[in-house]
Design a protein that fits this description.
Strand content: under 5%
Radius of gyration: 25 Å
Number of domains: 1
Helix content: 55-70%
Largest sheet: none
Oligomer: single chain
Order of helices and strands: HHH
Distance between the termini: 57 Å
Number of strands: 0
Structural class: mainly alpha
Amino acid sequence: MATVKTAISIDGELFEQAEQMAKATHVSRSRLYAQALRKHIALWQDRLLTEQINAAYADGPAPEDTAFLRAASAHMADLSEDDPW
């Protein structure tokens, strides 16, 4: 993928902290900013996925899922009836 140059404005204190981190980790400032942005985007995508999953299950389990879970639970209870644990 092509590299794109961009200019950003950040707080001076944040810039200094980024400079220190870049030097301490032996990466360029550009690489540090790109890594930070990748991580931030990944967190954002995870949050979006969680929201989608929560929306899909907002109404609770489907009736057939509930029936399956009850049957599986009963079966497990039968299997473990003689289990000493």
